[in-house]
Design brief:
There is one protein chain. Helix 3 (106-117) runs parallel beside helix 6 (156-169) and helix 6 runs parallel beside helix 7. This protein is of the alpha/beta class and 405 residues long. The strands form 5 sheets. An 8-stranded parallel beta barrel has the order 3-4-8-9-10-11-14-15, surrounded by 7 helices. Helix content is 30%, strand content 20%. It has helices at 28-37, 77-90, 106-117, 134-138, 149-152, 156-169, 184-193, 238-251, 266-274, 284-289, 294-308, 313-316, 380-384; strands at residues 6-8, 11-13, 17-19, 41-48, 58-62, 66-71, 75-76, 94-99, 122-126, 174-177, 198-201, 206-207, 230-233, 256-260, 279-282, 335-339, 359-361, 367-369, 390-394. Bound molecules: flavin mononucleotide (FMN). The site of flavin mononucleotide has 25 residues, from strand 4 and helix 10.
């Protein structure tokens, strides 16, 4: 019988689903809803000893896959303590307290201890916020804390030092949240040396949405008339997140890893686990679809595990890593495209690709492979044919099965 139960850095979790730190987790009501919907843990909204500057959320969502988040709500440590205390009194969900320390290293320990005293089950050190520190550094401004957020998370020495300060100040496990702006595998190693029990990745890389080109390049946010660089989150960052988790796991085989970034379906959860994650974090999924989809993740994963014969998450973890090699070690096969004439609509999409000259259109406009010997078998025509009329065939005549999802 398959189970989703999991131990993560000493926390007993009923499943691997964690609500990521954001405005999804800044009130007791929302934490209670997350628990009711089946989440095993929440990471509360970022808090500070001293909130560096006032801000409120503004977002842009393009095509429901590109989610820009340049700013958010900010919690004082007093607010966060009240939230953690309330959640511990009224729920059984595990509470991870997301925090960012001040510019002095010891302050990270002071803040962590306050959150432990309030009842937090785990500390998440945010050394990855794209909106704090990094922006100031990039534009040369002395604001928002020079070595904070994603700027701190690219400095291994400092990250190790704050990891040590926080980890030695508390008895509960400490997790470092890493930025994809830096070498996450090395940063994870540094934080681990500093004593953290776990790392989470990825936070949002910096980005910019399209400006309004018919209005002098103004920003297109609903509630601002200027903007800072945005954190990019949601489906657009998923492949980047897979890469970071695979690299962190390869370099740090024994570390506890929370993997997130663009996870939207139960299949993505399995992907992330096969690339090395122990547990999973979600933010934009719940922004777009609500906590109720946790049920779908749970049911989908359990059904898959039963079908495939996996009893627990540990048996799936890291399975995809053995296929990642250096570019000089890649094994190639010789396959070529075959066009199913009954499916081809004659749209010409394969014929028009400028990198490839192997197709021609016949008198009925349908595609025909005429220069097979020049084919690399690279797969672009196969992946992009709008009619799915192209299959790839090996030298021995066997057809390559498309992936199921
Ligand atoms: C509106 C919003 C607010 C966020 N606030 C925080 C935060 O307070 N602390 C933090 O560590 N990450 C924060 N994040 C990052 C998310 O926790 C998550 O790491 C990121 O969005 C990538 O996951 P996703 O693609 O599932 O959204 C925030 C993201 C969004 C969209």
């Amino acid at each position: 019988m398959a189970t989703l139960k999991n131990e993560f850095a000493g926390l007993q979790l009923k499943n691997p689903f964690i609500v990521a730190s954001s405005e999804l987790t800044n009130t007791l009501e929302k934490i209670q809803l997350a628990e009711k919907a089946g989440a095993a843990a929440v990471s509360t909204k970022l808090c500070f000893l001293q909130v560096p500057f006032w801000a409120k959320p503004y977002h842009k969502v393009e095509d429901r896959i590109i989610f820009f988040s340049p700013s958010g709500d900010r919690m004082s440590v007093e607010d966060a303590q009240r939230l953690v205390e309330g959640a511990k009194k009224t729920t059984d969900i595990k509470i991870i307290a997301n925090m960012m320390g001040p510019s002095d290293v010891e302050g990270w320990g002071v803040l962590a201890k306050k959150l432990e005293d309030a009842g937090a089950d785990m500390i998440e050190m945010n050394m990855s916020c794209p909106n704090i520190g990094l922006h100031a550094k990039q534009i040369g401004a002395k604001q928002a804390g020079g070595a904070a957020g994603a700027s701190l998370g690219q400095n291994a020495e400092l990250s190790e030092a704050v990891s040590r300060a926080a980890s030695s100040a508390v008895k509960i496990p400490v997790m470092a949240k890493l930025t994809p702006e830096g070498p996450t595998a090395l940063m994870a190693e540094a934080c681990s040396k500093g004593g953290v029990a776990a790392v989470s990745a990825i936070n949002c890389p910096q980005s910019l949405p399209s400006p309004d080109i018919y209005n002098g390049g103004r920003p297109t946010y609903t509630n601002t008339n200027n903007m800072s660089f945005a954190g990019l989150c949601g489906p657009a960052i998923r492949p980047l997140a897979y890469r970071h988790i695979a690299q962190i796991r390869t370099k740090n085989p024994d570390l506890n890893i929370a993997g997130g970034g663009g996870l939207m379906t139960w299949q993505h959860c399995v992907d992330m686990i096969m690339y090395g994650a122990d547990v999973l974090t979600f933010c934009v999924l719940f922004y777009l679809k609500g906590f109720r989809v946790i049920k779908n993740l749970e049911e989908g994963m359990l059904k898959f595990m039963e079908e495939q014969g996996y009893e627990n998450i540990g048996q799936m973890r890291d399975l995809a890593l053995k296929y990642i090699v250096t570019p000089d070690k890649v094994n190639y096969s010789n396959c070529v495209p075959k066009v199913d004439q009954s499916k081809c609509t004659g749209c010409g999409s394969c014929v028009n690709m400028s990198q490839c000259m192997i197709f021609e259109q016949g008198p009925d406009k349908k595609a025909v492979v005429t220069r097979e010997k020049e084919c690399y078998g690279c797969g672009v025509c196969y992946w992009t044919c709008p009619a799915k009329a192209i299959s790839m065939v090996n030298e021995d005549g066997t057809v390559i099965d498309p992936p199921k999802k």
